[in-house]
């Protein structure tokens, strides 16, 4: 029984982590008042970059290669997000259209770059602790995961602490709530948003690398299969609060895993499409509830999606 | 009003379009141009890769008599129509459309190009110039099933599929029946992930099956994700369509190989001879379009021998996994003892055999 | 020497037309260079992608077929975009419209005569509207961002489609594959209007372009939409109800998407399978921006994007560039046009530094 629970938990963690990573990044972006719909594209760019680097340097760097791969995935994700950032922050273009363009661009570019890597494999980047702990039937539920899992958990706590307990986080939230006032107080709105977008891009890239380096160590076109959109839904579902984001991510992960368990055990009474649409329906429902109740602190940042137009 | 009808413009436009592939020699017998429409990338080490090997085999065997080109990553929607039209307009006279989802598009475009011969893989709609072809994948499934039945210590084997379509159902049933012949108490757990492509979900499905006790997992999905999970969990798995041992050296026991070469060669020859007819071809081990990858060292000798014997049985017709008595999940007998299921029944199979937990 | 951006008094008409054209040309140039660097025959690839579909008459029908749904959807989206109402769920409305129209067809399998097609089309439009009504309600009643609600509903629509064609609407003669039964002959539109090679969708698109052009430039409604978008406060003083604008623009764009959906089913494959959602709803957003939210611009932009789709396939067949390139081109064109948007609203001025003066003199 215990093994059963542990096995299930391990599977849930594996399913949840990439979404948690991308959503954590997007949370910071949206808190600063920017809506970046290009998450799926950035994840794919991160996925192909991480894989390519880990593959290329696998022989020369051995165990360090995947770490380098993840770092490059983060850089690639951040670089692609800068394309978005320059367009919306410096050139004032429409955030929705630019974000979508980034997604389409990311899908196409990753396919182009990855074309030469189809069929190649790398060792999975899936353990951090020594085998005695990571392989232990009981302790693997805590120690048996990829470094990226721990990174994701650390990041969401760091982001939550940053947003709610630091002055810098307060300024970022102020920029997202009322950019004109923040600007008049003297805060560098544009610079802050650039930083937030870069952070979001980096985390999306790392989230993407989880697919190509941990779950299935290979590259296939569009291998994120829409997880970027679920990450966006998750940010909405969480009411833009870090604690709820963590809970929501695992909630989604449990739903997805439950669907598979139900099928494997012979219970297919609810069509799989029901399960698959749940994250999105719930996100819309939560949106309606929090917008209706007007609870401060858990509604969309007031400037979300609107361009920054200082009168000066 | 200038009528932009297709008929008016085909001739002039085709001549005017300077495509490098078009040759103009009117004197020497021109090689037969063969076209291939691929669903995925040729490097995918799976479905498309095996068709590409078939295309290469065709060029090798009929050097000088045929040229063959391909288009990859063609989606199974209306956008396949222009691709097929392009191939026809470029002078290809024999075109293979290698996925079920091209069925209606093939029929559609075939109407507009009656002098081109079309072959649709795994479909069921034919026309005067459209034939269909398929492979008896289930024969290979039976072989892997017998190995799974012998090697499973937990008595539970797993199967990751995509949609509940006859081809997948046949595979699950053949796999399970052959495993039960070795170990009558074996059960197989089936998870359909309701998508053709989602490596992360395939991996999660495989993990779930492993969590629920499966120690051998077969797959009917397009990526090696399932095998990678098997490798990690130190259980066994089988490749699909091609030898996938590179992805899971220890877990990969064998794979059923799709060898399309013999079929493509025979059809090209038929067109060259002028004997091509629209047909519904369903070949298997016997005709050489199905084979097994080399067994891994983990498979014991006696199990290998039994598998080889089964393959020989398929080839000479003495063995058929769908020989009764076969009951379905509710216990009702579907095939009486001694009888073999007819092809027509296999093609619409929508029920699972007893022992499959779906 | 500095570069300064000066806001123009009125948006530059010249730039509004020049920038889309320049975006396309720049994309072509950049694409040729990049492909050459990667190792493909760059100029040839660009030629096949952008030029061949335009100069080869037998490609025109493919371009027209591809452009029609893009234009129809984008016309609806552009209206809302002018009011700064962002419907990015057109893909979902497209799917639900197709489902609604097909549903009517399946309910009346023995119907004959043209009226069944009209009924299907009406159902398609209503279906798309219904799917857009949910976000409209959420926005006007609960101030829910329509960007998020329309987007989420796309993925719900995809699941609804998957469920229907895999379950209740599965073709009994379809060998258990997830697809609907085919529409009857009476329920299908021909691929081309008899006597021509023009797809019926394109004819509809032409008519609608005219309708939207009149609506936008000649009607009070069109004026109210633009005002709500450009100056919400002024609009309120003028008596233009923002709430009403949200409803009408979302319903119109939803209806247009639904119309495109049912037209696509009825005139192309005649049944719905898993390959049906082709992403037209998202590409239409690009078309809307490339066309500068203007109906005539949208018509042309739809044609251009269709050219890249069709040309991308030709390039794949002839030059063997990967088919992902079409997406890269489309995104690049959109990036360029979004980036150049600033030139419409601002003028670029090069300022020479004034000679240094002592602060006292400057004050005087």
Q: Label the structural class of chain A.
A: mainly alpha
The counted number of beta strands of chain A is: 0
Share of helix of chain B, binned: 25-40%
Rounded average pLDDT of chain A: 88
Please report the distance between the alpha carbons of the first and last residues of chain B.
61 Å
How would the global form of chain B be characterised? globular
- The stretches of 5 or more residues of chain B where confidence is low (pLDDT under 50) are 1-28
Please identify the structural class of chain B as seen in this structure: alpha/beta
Strand order of the largest sheet of chain B: 12-10-9-8-6-7-15
The biggest sheet of chain A amounts to: none
Return the string of H and E elements of chain A. Answer: HHHHHHHHHHHHHH
Features:
heterotrimer; A: 312 residues; mainly alpha; 14 helices; 0% strand; globular; C: 364 residues; two-stranded antiparallel ribbon; 2 strands; 3% strand
Descriptive notes:
The complex is a heterotrimer of chains A (312), B (358) and C (364). Chain A has 14 helices and no strands. Chain A has helices at 2-31, 39-56, 58-61, 64-90, 95-114, 131-134, 140-143, 147-165, 167-177, 179-185, 189-215, 227-237, 242-264, 272-293. In chain A, helix 2 runs antiparallel to helix 4 (64-90), helix 4 packs antiparallel against helix 5 (95-114) and helix 9 crosses helix 10 (179-185). Chain A starts with a helix and ends in a 19-residue tail after the last helix. Helix content of chain B is 37%, strand content 20%. In chain B, the strands form three sheets. In chain B, strands 12-10-9-8-6-7-15 form a seven-stranded mixed beta sheet, sandwiched between helices. A six-stranded parallel beta sheet of chain B has the order 2-1-3-4-5-11, with helices on both faces. In chain B, strands 13-14 form a two-stranded antiparallel ribbon. By secondary structure, chain C is mostly helical. The two termini of chain C are 25 Å apart.
